[in-house]
Design goal:
The chain is mainly α. Helix content is about 75%, strand content about 0%. The longest helix is centred in the middle third of the chain and has 18 residues. It is elongated, with a radius of gyration of 12 Å.
């Protein structure tokens, strides 16, 4: 199995974000933890390791926090 390219990982994450990141009431930290766990699991199912996610996105929690805050701002 070949390793996914940076572009393939970015496309996977972009699509996953569009399907899974929604504004919810409650703790941003709790929601980001949940999303990080789900993203990592979905990525593994596609053959993308946590390390590959980290190299592509940087810190996953920071990345998801930014994405989540953009969703909240767009919904306001």
């Amino acid at each position: 199995m070949t390793q996914p390219t940076k572009t393939e990982i970015e496309d996977f994450v972009k699509n996953w974000i569009a399907l899974n990141v929604r504004s919810v009431k409650g703790s941003v930290t709790t929601e980001v933890d949940r999303l990080a766990s789900e993203l990592t699991g979905a990525a593994r199912a596609e053959g993308i390791s946590g390390g590959e996610l980290n190299r592509t996105l940087g810190d996953i929690d920071d990345y998801l926090t930014e994405q989540y805050q953009q969703v909240i701002a767009a919904a306001a």
